[in-house]
Amino acid sequence: MNIIAGNFKANLTRAQVASYTAQLDSSLDSFLDSQSAQNTLPRVYLFPSSTALLDNTFKHFRIGAQNAHFANSGGFTGEIGLSQLQEFHLSSIIIGHSERRGIFNESQDFINQKFRFYAQAGFEIFYCIGEDLKTRQQGQKALGDFLESQLSGIDTSYSKLIVAYEPIWAIGTGESASVEQIESTHTMLASLTSAPLLYGGSVNEKNAHEILSIPHVNGVLVGSASLKVENFTQIIQAGFSPSL
Ligand code: PGA
């Protein structure tokens, strides 16, 4: 079953997320009603900003956290911890996103601590890896070594692990990686872990079906194109397609 996840980043307000989620649940209801066979939807996740987190009470998708510190609570100005996530009954989190690694300087060691803490708490972990353009241009060996280094210290057999491959050069650029690039990278990743493998980086309602048809792609992590509920609904429908 495909996994379709939307990462809102620092976009959409609490009020906007409230109306988005209500609309998504009801449009997925109508979509399911319109299907003749009793097929199931892909597993769908939404990751709103911390101020827009909502209780996990939706019918067709789960809410997760984009980030949290590896503590229950305490002196961590600007952060939220496990206790704040539990208040919303959340049990999914993104760890290792390139924006956390790059802009917020999260080291592999720091990310390891986050991973261990949230794995211990039984969370589903959307663990992101991805190279910059310079690394990609150095060839397959450099690419493989780099992606492996971003997995170092992570328990790749953790049962609730989901790995998202997101090449930095394809994030927010409108230009996704090519089918060949995604296929060869995911094939390599599949030899390192049996976790579901998502692709992320300029996925949209037009390219979702093609990307979801690539071998070893088990879903997508979507940024910009998840911000409009109509577009995200189409991406979910691409993940549903019985021809896959
Ligand atoms: P994008 O972002 O879809 O806007 O490229 C993907 C991500 O950062 O998860």
Secondary-structure map with pairings?
Blueprint: E1 3-7, H1 14-33, E2 43-47, E3 62-63, H2 82-87, E4 92-95, H3 98-102, H4 108-120, E5 124-129, H5 133-137, H6 140-150, E6 161-165, H7 179-190, E7 197-200, H8 208-212, E8 219-222, H9 229-240
Parallel strand pairs: 1-2, 1-8, 2-3, 4-5, 5-6, 6-7, 7-8
2-phosphoglycolic acid binds at residues 7, 166, 171-172, 200-203, 221-225.
Would you give an account of this structure?
This protein is α/β, with parallel strands linked by helices and 244 residues long. It has a single domain, classed as Aldolase class I (TIM Barrel). Helix content is 36%, strand content 14%. The chain is built from nine helices and eight strands. It has helices spanning 14-33, 82-87, 98-102, 108-120, 133-137, 140-150, 179-190, 208-212, 229-240; strands at residues 3-7, 43-47, 62-63, 92-95, 124-129, 161-165, 197-200, 219-222. The chain has an eight-stranded parallel sheet. Helix 7 links the parallel strand 6 (161-165) and strand 7. Helix 1 runs parallel beside helix 9. The longest helix has 20 residues, at 14-33. It is globular and about 50 Å long. The model has no long low-confidence stretch (mean pLDDT 95). The structure holds 2-phosphoglycolic acid. 2-phosphoglycolic acid binds at residues 7, 166, 171-172, 200-203, 221-225.
